[in-house]
Amino acid sequence: MDARMLPAATTPPHQPIRTQQLHHLHPPQPLQPPHPPRRPGLGSWWQRAPGAVLSVAGLAALLLAVQVGAMPVAASDWWAWADDGPASGGAYVLWELRLPRALLAAAVGAALGLAGALAQGLFRNPLADPGLLGVTSGAVCAAALVLTVFAAAAATLPPAWRMWVLPAAAFSGALTVCLGLDRLARWLTPGSVSGLLLTGLALNALAMAVVGLCTYLATDDQLRSLSFWTLGSVAGASWTVVSVLAAAVAAALWQGRQLAQALNALALGEAAAAHVGVDVKALRWRLIVTVALLCGLAVAWCGLIGFIGLMAPHLVRGASGADQRRVLPLAAAAGAVLLLLADTAARTVAIPAEVPVGIFTALIGAPMFLALLRGMARRNGGHA
Amino acid sequence: MKQALQLPLPLPTSSTLQPLLALHEATTRVPGREFGPFSLTLNAGERVAILGPSGAGKSTLLRLLAGESLAHGGQVLWRGEPLGALSARMLARQRAVLPQQHGVAFGLPVELVVALGRLSFEPDPGQSAIVAEALLAACASHLTGRRFDTLSGGEQARAQLARVMAQLWQARGGLLLVDEPLAALDPGLQLALLDALADFTRERSLALVAVLHDINHALAGFDRLWLVQNGQVIADLPAGRAALPALEALFGIELRCVELAPGRIAVLAQRARSGKTAAQAGTQARAQPLSA
After folding, report:
1. Is A16 on the interface with B (CB under 8 A)?
2. Domain-located, residue B254
3. Does residue B221 lie within any of the structural domains?
């Protein structure tokens, strides 16, 4: 009621009003789990330095992916890029087939892992995988429509643009589902986790029904490219695709860095996040667009690859805690390693034939989803 | 417009003229129910307890004050400005809200939950000291290093209290809104935290609005009482002996008064013998036992 009542902005910073003796308090160690495991080995390294473990694993997986296959790659082939003229044999396999493919697998894995972590932060739920919620199905649905129903319209575009038609369609499909999910789940079942997942289930079914309809209408040629989308594969790699995806992942990681602390605040609930100063509406928009971009690009070039967005953040949270500032980059790295390994297995398990990698990720991911569900149920029951 | 430009550094005169928070005929709705119209003013440094039976609309009134639910009619003004027009960040530096339910997704560590209170400020090296002091002030230092989702209800309440304290640690003349901060705590901690809240707000000249269940807590630490019934504020009284008849009518109980010290009273609740008190006040309060 007098001049003492001034707003916070006028008081000098770094000046707590009541100073108390704090020396008996341990300095805060937010990122350490309360009981670090004692046993030596990979598990304990994973707990202590997940970033280092993922870097080493990523390099090893990359080397493995490049070396393993029907055609052997010699050390001299690594220097072949400096030679003039068309490469042949091992050098061609290395530089035109395996390396772009391995890097595409890593980039797509990173995109999916990051999209999963962002979607889980957005929907405040560790089960909110863009694949399960129908976001990637929405992208496939839009791509399938462009391939079949609107194939004639797409063919009239100038050739230089045609490469971007599918990514643009997939992005808009993913964005539509993401926005629809956000609005529908709030309107139908406000605040309910199961309501969100069930809304996603319905949108997933709807999108896949449209894909089914497109299959029904498709010609033989179109059918072949459609089955590529529904199974998921990184076989269509090229250096252009790799660089576009890598740029998108880098941009999304930079976004994630800006949004990480606001995402942490969102875990308190939307109202509480707003009260600590987060512009929740703007945050949701940026998250939705980023998730849709990552999913759309991944689907446009590699089709439906499920469960990476679920597995990667889950693995990372187990090691480094739930702080999004660490989860976001580590989830991208874990996704890259996971998909790289899965693709190498898919490519080599039945040489010379090739199993679509989407089948592999689903084989590992579905049991993991069930394990995650059990862990959540136990926690809610108050046992864990 | 002119006022908006002055906002970061209001003149002392303008802050004495403008109440900190004012409701003018504000109404709000939840599906199937209408609340208000409320016309209330809160001055800087005032401490108000909101009391009323369950379902009367206490939390709804607090959400209206916090800007969580928008006014369907009327206005909610923060220092003379419509609450909805202010940025979340500017508001967060002067006003904190402790919600009734505090689920935190993903099991964040306790220190991070508390540090999120500092989100609207520029990062600075003093932050971890503020977090530690806020944890100490909320009797929650021992929770350092634990995951929020492994805490008990009372521990979660303390960690969240530490979060709002960290948020207003350097604020002067702001506002703290709390919704049943003491509900899940044992009696010793209730008194300790009530004192902590009182000290915290008094040292910073913060206004405090709290939804409470316990009449004694309201009489001990607050200047005014807003009594809520059927979605209306039926009385705006100074806290003290004079408020007891209205409280008896509100809850349909009889209150026996004990003088602890000069000017400090506590009450003992009993079931109303005949509903006489409710009839006297002309309200339709149902007799219901006061939960301990």
Report:
1. yes
2. no
3. no
Q: With an 8 Å Cβ cutoff, are A17 and B203 in contact?
A: yes
* A190/B contact by beta carbon, under 8 A: no
Work out the minimum CA distance from B232 to partner chain A, whole angstroms. 24
CATH class belonging to A100-377 = mainly alpha
pTM equals: 0.83
Whether B109 sits inside 8 A of A26 (CB atoms) is: no
Distance CA B153, CA A338 (A): 38
Place of tokens 């044999």: A89
CB A184 within 8 A of CB A198: no
Q: Is residue B187 part of a domain?
A: no
- All residues at 6 or more sequence positions from A284 whose CB lies less than 8 Å from its CB, including other chains: A122, A182
d(CA A111, CA A291): 9
Q: Name the 3-class secondary structure at B46.
A: coil
What residue numbers bound the domain in which B150 lies?
A: 102-170
How many residues can be counted in chain B?
A: 292
Tell me how far apart the alpha carbons of residues A320 and A48 are, in angstroms, rounded to a whole number: 8
Upstream peptide bond of A16 is cis (omega within 30 degrees of 0):
no
Our CA-based measurement puts residue B144 at a distance from the nearest CA of chain A, in whole angstroms, of 7
This model of the complex carries an ipTM of 0.85
CB pairs under 8 A, 24+ apart, for A250-253? A252/A111, A252/A114, A252/A115, A252/A118, A252/A290, A252/A293, A252/A294, A253/A114, A253/A328, A253/A329, A253/A332
The mean pLDDT of B232-240, rounded to a whole number, is: 91
How many domains are there within chain B?
Answer: 1
Dihedral, B195, B200, B206, B210 alpha carbons, nearest 10: -40
Cβ pair B40, B209 in contact under 8 A: no
B142 belongs to a structural domain: yes
A11 confidence band (pLDDT: 50, 70, 90): very low
Q: Dump pLDDT digits (tens) for B185-224.
A: 888 889 888 899 999 999 999 999 999 989 999 998 899 9
Enumerate residues 212 to 271 of chain B having a beta carbon within 8 A of any beta carbon in chain A: none
Query: In the block, which residue shows the tokens 């579905």?
Result: A366
Segment A321-371, tens digit of pLDDT? 899 999 999 999 999 999 999 999 888 887 777 888 888 888 888 887 788
CB atoms within 10 A of CB B56: 22
Instruction: List A residues 111-140 in contact with B (Cβ-Cβ < 8 A).
Output: 120, 124-126
- Tokens 């926005």 label which residue? A179
Report whether B214 contacts B191 (CB < 8 A): no
SS3 content of chain A, % helix, strand, coil (to 5): 70, 0, 30
User: A66 exposed, middle or buried (CB, 10 Å; 0-12, 13-18, 19+)?
Assistant: buried
On whether the CB atoms of residues B227 and B195 are closer than 8 A, the answer is no
Distance CA A49, CA A67 (A): 27
Chain A CB contacts of B106 under 8 Å are 120, 124, 126, 267, 317, 322
The DSSP string of A350-366 is: TTTS---HHHHHHHHHH
Q: Are A290 and A92 in contact (CB under 8 A)?
A: no
The CA dihedral of B154, B159, B164, B169, to the nearest 10 degrees, is 130
How does DSSP assign A220-251, residue by residue? HHHHHHHHHHHH--STT--HHHHHHHHHHHHH
Task: State mean pLDDT over A109-119.
Answer: 95
